[in-house]
Each structure stands twice: as structure tokens, then as C-alpha cells.
Design goal:
It is built from 5 helices and 23 strands. The chain has a domain at 318-348. It has helices at 2-19, 169-172, 335-348, 411-421, 424-437; strands spanning 61-63, 66-81, 84-91, 100-103, 107-114, 122-125, 149-155, 160-166, 177-183, 194-203, 221-224, 235-238, 242-249, 255-259, 264-269, 272-273, 281-282, 284-287, 291-298, 303-309, 322-323, 326-327, 403-409. Strands 10, 11, 13, 15, 16, 17 and 19 form a 7-stranded mixed β-sheet that branches. Strands 1, 2, 3, 5 and 7 form a 5-stranded mixed β-sheet that branches. Strands 12-23-20-14-18 form a 5-stranded mixed β-sheet. With 440 residues, the chain is an alpha+beta fold.
């Protein structure tokens, strides 16, 4: 599997070199004044490519008038947090699988291989495709047996945020899904400068284990694009940009997603773009199971703004029921258990501060957030990446579960962070921008 991953990485890199000239067309306008309105564009411009932080983009090749993609369903090891790697099932070495981007009106061929130990089939969620391409096992097709493959081919006449996933129920809870973005033939109005997709998932993993219990409904690892905070990569936007965030939920729980500091509108669902007459201001949107929601806003206010599910238990990693290697309860910890947890943390991470009151144990209800949920401690040095550049020390301490940051940066700092992302980001950008702009 490792050699296959190396081949795929090499293919993406080679493709990026060929298509690098497409990069400039989607770069934000550096001459726009900070916080100013976006000037009216002369003529139609292609939609910007969609970024999927922490998730690769799926490369493709041209075969006549068809874009051909390859997906491999297989077991993967997914690091959801430094020091915490789960055994999941995904596509092309990642869970969730790589993001597919194409354009309305194109014809695509997707070759799907099954390297799982059991039958599998692929469903294209929300796409209007011929019945025999729907991926429903037992009716539209026979399941793909281990070692087998199935070729899906159809024309894309829709636009919007869609996704692909296994249609074997329990396999969905192992990570088998990915985003399928269809760019419109005519760019959306108003246009955006930054476009992101975030896939929301949850896993139930017992203490001292690495395999999700797909029969369990008490989830303790909540992820965005396969990462739990504080490991989820922040979204980087320039002050004054109009931003779109596409949210996809293929888990078992609904997620009320809340953005700090900004008001947005919901502009689309898993069925495509919504009429502007339906748009209304909000700062929290409920993304139900098997749904997608597109939100858009203008990044008017600089800062490191939290974006997270507002269910309290979804803002945690491993909940409160795990102390070291022991499984305790899902209820409040006793003072003795709290002391055990605090001492364990102090022993493992001597930089932790004892910042509770001296009489804390005499106060009814203690402990709550003080120590229960924070035993999964990650040194900030393990979280360093271009997108975390110049975040304040200690930023990660209260970032957990289904949570990330939307960093609205002034032009100089934005340019500095984006420069640090090169050349790795440019390789992915070139591949996907070609998928967005290229015509048969």
C-alpha cells in the first residue's frame, strides 16, 4: 500500500508541474484595500478552486471528452491528533477520501477499486445519474467484491456541494466518504475569493484501542476533514474577502455549526445553490445527517475566529470517560478521579498550570472543563504548520473536538502565511484549478 501511495503522490506532483500555469488565475487580488469592497469584475471569471484542508485533491487524466478519476477503497491509518492514530477505512490512503472537483456539463469516469476485506459499493450522494450508476447494492449493481472494481461513468448536469460514500451502512462509520464539488457553468453571483469544504465525522473508540466501534453511539472523537482540534488546519482568508465554507455531514449526529465574529447566509444545500430570496442572516447553521450546507460571508473583522459544532460534547476529544488507560463513566468525575487525572497530566506535561482555586474540590459540580476534557494534551510544537504561523502561545489549549479557526488576516500577514504554504500548496492548487477551468 505504501508503494501505491508513493505512486499517487508522484502523479499529483507531476500533474502539478504540468498545470502550474493555471495557478495565477485563482490568486486573491493583492491590490484590494484591507476591508474594502470587492470591485466589480469585468466579464465572467471561473470559480475559484475549493480547498479541503488536511484532505488531498483527487488527480485525473483526460480520455477524449471524459475526465477519468481513480478511487481505491482500503484500510487506512488516520492520525486524528498527534499521538492518536486510528485504524479506519477510507479512499486512496485517507479518511475522508480525496476531494473530487469537476464542472457542470462535463462527463466523468470514476474507476473504483475495492481493497477492503468485504463487499462494497459507491453511492454519489445527491447526484442525478443513470440508475445503473447509482451504486445501490442489490438493485442498481452487484456489490464490488474484495479485489474487484466497478467503472462509473456519467454526465454532470448539476452544480453545488455533493459527496460520495459507501452504501454499506456500517462502513460509513469507518470513514468511507469524500467531497464531490461541481462548479457551475456560470460562476455564482456574488463571487467569492476563498472557497473551502469541511467534512464532519465522529468515531467511538474505546480507551487503549484504535478501531472505531461502529455499533456505539457515544462518540468521543469528533473531526473536521479527518482531524480533531487542535490538529484541524485553520482556514486562512484575507481581510475583506468574500468566503464560502461548504459543510458535509455523513455521521450519526446533527451538528449546529457556529462561526464567531461574523454573520453569514446559507446559500446552498446538498441539492445545489439556493435562490437568493431564501437567504437569511445567521451565525449558526444546523447541518443534519446526510446533508450539506454552504455558507457565505464577507471577512470584515480581523482575528482568529473559532468555528465549531455547538453541541458541548462535540467540543471535546475522548469526552470525560477516559483517564489514562481506564474507562470510568460518562458522568462527572469524582474528586479522587479528578486528582488522578490532574496528577497524570502534570506528570506527562510538566508545563501544565494548576490554575484551579485552592478550594475547588469543595465547590459542588467541580470538576467540569477545568481538567476533565483536556487530558489529551498536544504540545504546540507538534501543531506547527504555515496556517498556525503567529498564533498566540497557548492557542491550542481550549481547541478540541469538532472545532477549527477561521483566521481573518490583514494583507501583509495573509501574504506571509500563504508564502509559507508554498510550494506544497501550489502543487495541490494547480491540480484542482486545472479541474475547475479546463474544457474538453
Amino acid at each position: 500500500m505504501e508503494s501505491r501511495r508513493s505512486f499517487l503522490k508522484a502523479a499529483v506532483t507531476m500533474g502539478a508541474g504540468i498545470w502550474a500555469s493555471a495557478k495565477a488565475s485563482a490568486e486573491p487580488n493583492p491590490s484590494r484595500a484591507a476591508g474594502g469592497a470587492q470591485p466589480k469584475r469585468a466579464g465572467a471569471k471561473a470559480s475559484p478552486s475549493v480547498e479541503s484542508p488536511d484532505v488531498p485533491q483527487l488527480a485525473w487524466r483526460r480520455d477524449g471528452n471524459v475526465k477519468e478519476f481513480h478511487l481505491v477503497a482500503e484500510p487506512v491509518k488516520q492520525t486524528v491528533l498527534p499521538g492518536r492514530t486510528l485504524d479506519l477505512w477510507g479512499f486512496n490512503g485517507n479518511a475522508p477520501g480525496p476531494t473530487i472537483q469537476a464542472r457542470q456539463g462535463e462527463r466523468v469516469r470514476i474507476i473504483v477499486e475495492n481493497r477492503l476485506p468485504e463487499p462494497f459499493s459507491m453511492h454519489w450522494h445527491g447526484l442525478e445519474v443513470p440508475f445503473e450508476m447509482d451504486g445501490t447494492p442489490g438493485t442498481s449493481q452487484k456489490p464490488i467484491t474484495p479485489g474487484g472494481r466497478f467503472v462509473y461513468e456519467f454526465t454532470l448536469h448539476q452544480e453545488g456541494t455533493f459527496f460520495y460514500h459507501t452504501h454499506m451502512a456500517m462502513q460509513e462509520m469507518m470513514g468511507l466518504l469524500g467531497a464531490f464539488i461541481l462548479h457551475p457553468e456560470t460562476p455564482y453571483d456574488p463571487p467569492v475569493e476563498r472557497d473551502f469544504v469541511l467534512m464532519l465525522q465522529e468515531y467511538a473508540v474505546l480507551a487503549n484501542n484504535t478501531i472505531p466501534n461502529t455499533m456505539e453511539m457515544e462518540f468521543n472523537w469528533l473531526t473536521m476533514n479527518g482531524r480533531a482540534a487542535p490538529a484541524a488546519t485553520p482556514l486562512i482568508v484575507r481581510l475583506g474577502d468574500r468566503v464560502r465554507i461548504r459543510l458535509i455531514n455523513m455521521g450519526m449526529d446533527h451538528h449546529p455549526m457556529h462561526l464567531h465574529g461574523h454573520t453569514f447566509t446559507v446559500t446552498g444545500s446538498e441539492a445545489g445553490r439556493q435562490p437568493q430570496s431564501t437567504w437569511a442572516p445567521a451565525n449558526t447553521v444546523l447541518v443534519g445527517v446526510a446533508q450539506a450546507r454552504d455558507i457565505e460571508f464577507t471577512a470584515r473583522y480581523p482575528g482568529e475566529w473559532m468555528f465549531h459544532c455547538h453541541l458541548p460534547h462535540h467540543m471535546m476529544n475522548q469526552m470525560s470517560s477516559r483517564v489514562g488507560r481506564e474507562l470510568i463513566t460518562n458522568g462527572p468525575l469524582s474528586p479522587a478521579q479528578a486528582r488522578q487525572l490532574m496528577y497524570h497530566k502534570m506528570e506527562m506535561h510538566n508545563e501544565m498550570e494548576m490554575d484551579v482555586a485552592e478550594n475547588a474540590e469543595s465547590v459542588p459540580g467541580f470538576p467540569q472543563d477545568a481538567y476533565m476534557q483536556q487530558h489529551v494534551h498536544v504540545a504546540e510544537s507538534e501543531l506547527e504548520k504555515p496556517e498556525t504561523h503567529r498564533l498566540p502561545a497557548g492557542w491550542s489549549r481550549y481547541m478540541q473536538g469538532m472545532m477549527t479557526l477561521v483566521r481573518v488576516l490583514p494583507p501583509a500577514l495573509y501574504d506571509e502565511v500563504m508564502t509559507r504554504r508554498e510550494p506544497a500548496a501550489s502543487s495541490q492548487h494547480a491540480v484542482v484549478q486545472q479541474a475547475v477551468e479546463e474544457r474538453p
